[in-house]
Amino acid sequence: MPPPPAASSAPPSKDLPTFILAHPSFPKSRLVSLYSDFRPQLSTNPDGFHANTAAWTAALSDAAAAGLLSPTEALTLTAGPALEASLAAEGCGRPLAIGAALGTALSTRALIPLSTFLTQTTPIHHTSLLTTLSGTLWRLLIGGSTAPPPNPPPGQYVIPRNVELTSQHLLTHLHHLLENSTNPVLTSLWTHDDFHAEFLNPLLPTHPKFSPTDLAIILKYLSRDVNAITLSPTTIKFHLPTTSTTTTQPQAITETDTLLANLKHSISTLTLSLHNLAETSSSLHALILATLPKSKASALHHLRSQKLVEKQIAHRTSSLEQLTALLTSLTQAQDNVTTLRLLESGGKALAELTAQTGGVENVEAVLERVREAGEGVEEVSRAINRLGEEKMEEVVDEEEVERELAEMEEAERAGERQRENKRAEERARRDAEELARSLECLEVVDFVGDNERERERERVHAS
Questions:
Q1: What is the pLDDT of residues 395-435, one digit of tens each?
Q2: DSSP annotation of 232
Q3: What are phi and psi of 54, to 5 degrees?
Q4: CA separation for the pair 15, 86 (Å, rounded)
Q5: Which strand ranges, in their side-by-side order, compose the sheet holding 155-158?
Q6: DSSP, res 89
Q7: Helix (H, G, I), strand (E, B) or coil at 130
């Protein structure tokens, strides 16, 4: 394990007091209490003491994430007189109990010494609940004492909450890269330089590259606490997700992994170099055109330079093509190995399953037993059916059944005769009504005819 990085020498920002006073944990009604010496409250008002220490912990954690404790580091704070002086605010003065607040955060693991964080081999479990313990529980934890914790010694302290947030951002970014990658295995391998260039500090406002300290912290956390990566002095290997668990079991970084990561880095470096050389060549071409009318010697000098740049472009393009071809071959070979391993595992699984069947003879014996059992079930069913028929014959009197059926048929015939009589009566009624209407029409016709004949005789007589 390399020694911990040196402590940051950058002083806190002048905007720190303004940020603290505007923090949600610092309402105006509590400013006097928060900036006072509230250490005696541990015995007189334990809840108030822990509320104040929790407010300072939250505000300083957010200030670190905002780049106000250090412009390049978001995962640590540096305890000491400089921090206390930088927190002095107009109308409030210096925070008189900031040492007790930091000491409490240290005791509850809301802060962890940098050297401890980097050298500890077991995961560091941090929960924000520990920073808001009641006074009673606090006294139980420290053996009943009501004395405030001592001021932490000057130095850098890791802020676990910020580390967890940074880890979540980085893993989300990696997940996005994997989703859009045609080769997830290659995407999961990084040199330290490539990682440093790709994954920027997500908490700081300008998202700069990780400082050496923050980089060491986040790599340690990802490998030890969340089991997301495996580290070697040159290579970082992310554990690819699986369908059954969040991540695969930790795998050692192989020589092939290191070679793939280095090839990936070399190809990236050559690609960037070719881009820069192409821009240089374009600039030299423009200089040639600009100086040719004025000075042929200058134009000739720029042309020689351009030719040298073009030779470098040709050489590096050839190198890039060779490395790309090698990388493609390696990834194909790795895919073949993976496929072969899957086939081998599948073959073993099939052999085990086949062995569990006991072979063809056992299968035939099982099928024979199933057939015999089925025949036995059918025989039992037929016997039960015969027994049921016999019981039915004993219970039911056939003559009584036939007599009851004859009575039902006679009742049905009588009902049908009654319904037929009603239908006949209805037809007769309708026929009578129809006849009456026809007779009325005939009488009207006869009456009209008599009248016409009488008028005709009168006309004849008159003439």
A1: 566 777 778 778 888 888 888 888 888 888 888 888 888 88
A2: -
A3: -65, -40
A4: 9
A5: 76-79, 155-158, 112-113
A6: B
A7: helix
